[in-house]
Amino acid sequence: MGLYVEVGNNKESKLSWFRNNAMSYDTHNIECSYNEVPKGSRLVCLVDNGPFYAAAVAYCLAEAKTFADPYDGRPKQWFVVSDELLKKNCPMWDTYIED
């Protein structure tokens, strides 16, 4: 299923939360982009599913490649988010990430 960010603040949309708490990132080449992310942070793909946004954490290169699939026509934005923030906002963090 994957590791997803769940913004706990109902007053703020996911898009707004990412704009306020993360760094927008241009993924020119997903493999290079994945490897360029600073230690202590991760790539997150914010996917526009129409009625809602999903924010998928690229916890490994394979996951990043899945969300960077050029045949997936959904609008996407990429962000770099600190592990500290992700730990607080990903209910399944411990299932996917070993500290």
Name some characteristics of this structure:
single chain, alpha+beta, four-stranded antiparallel beta sheet
Describe this structure in words.
The protein is 33% helix and 24% strand. The chain is of the alpha+beta class and 99 residues long. The protein has one domain (14-96). Strand 2 and strand 3 (53-58) form a beta hairpin. The chain starts with 13 loop residues before the first helix and ends with a helix.
Q: How large is the count of helical segments? A: 5
Structural class: alpha+beta
Count of folded domains:
1
Range of helix content: 25-40%
Structure, briefly:
It is built from 5 helices and 4 strands.
What is the element layout, followed by pairings?
Layout: H1 14-21, E1 23-25, H2 30-36, E2 41-48, E3 53-58, H3 61-67, E4 76-82, H4 83-89, H5 93-96
Antiparallel strand pairs: 1-4, 2-3, 2-4
